[in-house]
Design goal:
This protein is α/β, with parallel strands linked by helices. It contains 6 helices and 6 strands; from the N terminus they run E-H-E-H-E-H-E-H-E-H-E-H.
Length: 138
């Protein structure tokens, strides 16, 4: 069973992602954080396999937080969940250590397959153009 932390500053987004995750038999614990401070409180208090991380957060951006996560807990996998199209941030996300990037508009269809791929050691990027690039980075 996977422990997952959803980090997004919008309650409705966290609830939507939670609902998708609750449909998967692979997911055990689902916790939430509204910002970077809560994210780090949670990852120091519990072991997570995966973080779903929004890029746009109050204070530090998701990409800044991703770099910090990879320094203190490099074993945690991170999938970026964003309203921004892949061409704007996916390459930066890969370089910062993300295992995946999904736009919020595609999350309902792609979140569970993305998690399955990432947990197996792969990468998942919802944009067709980014998949070959992601393979080169790993």
């Amino acid at each position: 069973m996977l422990n997952v932390l959803i980090t997004d500053d919008h309650w409705i987004v966290r609830q939507g992602l939670r609902q998708i995750l609750e449909e998967s038999a692979e997911i055990g614990i689902i916790d939430e954080a509204e910002n970077g401070t809560e994210l780090f409180e949670r990852i120091h208090a519990r072991d997570y396999h995966l973080i779903l991380l929004d890029i746009s957060l109050p204070g530090k951006s998701g990409l800044e937080l991703l770099k910090e996560i990879k320094i203190i807990k490099p074993e945690i996998l991170v999938i970026i969940i964003s309203i921004y199209p892949e061409d704007q941030y996916a390459v930066s996300a890969i370089k910062s250590g993300a295992s995946g990037y999904i736009t919020k508009g595609r999350a309902a269809d792609e979140l569970i397959p993305a998690i399955s791929e990432v947990i197996k050691g792969g990468s998942y990027f919802s944009g067709e153009f980014i998949r070959p690039m992601a393979s080169e980075q790993n």
